Every structure is written in structure tokens, then in C-alpha cells.
Amino acid sequence: MNTELFNRLLREIHNGDMGALEPIYNAYYKKMVLSARYVLHNSTDAQDAASQALVKLADYAKYNAWPCVRNANVYVSRTARNAAIDLYNARKNFVRLDALRYLPDEKSSEEKADDAVLFRQALESVSGRDYDVALMFYVYGCKIKEISREWNLPVGTVKWILSEVRRKMKVFLKK
């Protein structure tokens, strides 16, 4: 299917003819599944993503005043890839409910305060630059790249410092 025909079918969908989606499905569905499978590594999820991409394509055609695409192949594969990424991100944070029973009980506020004091003491057992790097990472939530730029250190060195800090804190907490 060429881009001109693809755009004509999009305009037909825009005008209310949802039957125009069928030739697009026939021409591109397998390509969409392949694009999605490259991201998801699972054929069932890839089919779900391809179906979601078709729905997005229909929505694009339906709600844009004059739907027009420069390159149909690129547009379709990019839409499928984006739908796969959306699906991956949505499922990445999914927690099975039966796994929740294995989580520890919620701590009381006193226990949390005690843990915070212990963490602070363990962190203070580290000194100098290591303390500052650990403080930026664990307390202020800075990313490793940000710390690397701030301290003018290679990323690998920052990671090594953090691993050394964790090791020293474990030794302190075992006392």
C-alpha cells in the first residue's frame, strides 16, 4: 500500500467510514506485530500492542481535521512501537495481588523513626566525599549522572563510591 492510498483511507475513516480500516489492517497488521514484538519479546503482547496501535490510528484519523501522513510504513511501525512501549510501561509496574501477602507488615511510625535514625548514623559513619555522594543519592534523590556532573567524576566512580558506602553501612549496621 502506498502513502497516497493510506492517506485516502485515513480521510475516509475521518468521514465516518470505519470499513476503510480493513485494508490498512490487511496491509500492515503483521508489520505492526513485528515492530511491537521487537520491544516486548512476546507475541501475545505484541498482538495486543498492534491492536492498540490500530485503535490509535483510527482515533488519529477520526479526530484530526485533515489526516495526512508523509510515509505510511514509518508511521505505522512507529505507532506500533509506541503502543508497545506504552504497554510495556503499563505492565512494568504491575504487581500481582497474591504476591502482596509476602510483603512485610507495615511498620509503625516509631519503627520508621528508629530506622531513619539508624540510617542517618550509618551514613555518618562514612566520611568526606563518599558521605556527600551518598547523601545526594540516598537522601536528596539525585541521579548518578547528576552526581557525576556535580563532582566532576566518571559515572563508574560514582557507582563504585555508592557500592563502598553500602558496604560500610552494612558493616556499621551489623554492630
Detailed description of the structure:
With 175 residues, the protein is mostly helical. It has two domains: 3-92, Orthogonal Bundle (Rna Polymerase Sigma Factor, Chain: A); 109-165, Arc Repressor Mutant, subunit A. The protein has eight helices and no strands. The protein has helices at 3-14, 21-40, 43-63, 72-92, 109-124, 128-139, 144-151, 155-174. Helix 6 (128-139) packs across helix 8. The longest helix is centred in the N-terminal third of the chain and has 21 residues, at 43-63. The protein starts with a helix and ends with a helix. The model has no long low-confidence stretch (mean pLDDT 83).
Key features?
elongated; Arc Repressor Mutant, subunit A; 2 domains
Q: What fraction, in percent, of the residue positions are helical?
A: over 70%
What is the level 1 CATH name of the largest domain? Mainly Alpha
How many separate domains?
Answer: 2
Give the helices and strands as they follow along the chain. HHHHHHHH
Level-2 CATH architecture of the largest domain: Orthogonal Bundle
Number of strands: 0
- The secondary structure category is mainly alpha
Distance between the termini: 71 Å
Quaternary structure type:
single chain
Largest sheet: none
Radius of gyration: 26 Å
Low-confidence stretches: none
Fill in the CATH topology of the largest domain. Rna Polymerase Sigma Factor, Chain: A
Strand content: under 5%
Number of helices: 8
**Shape field:** elongated
The pLDDT mean sits at 83
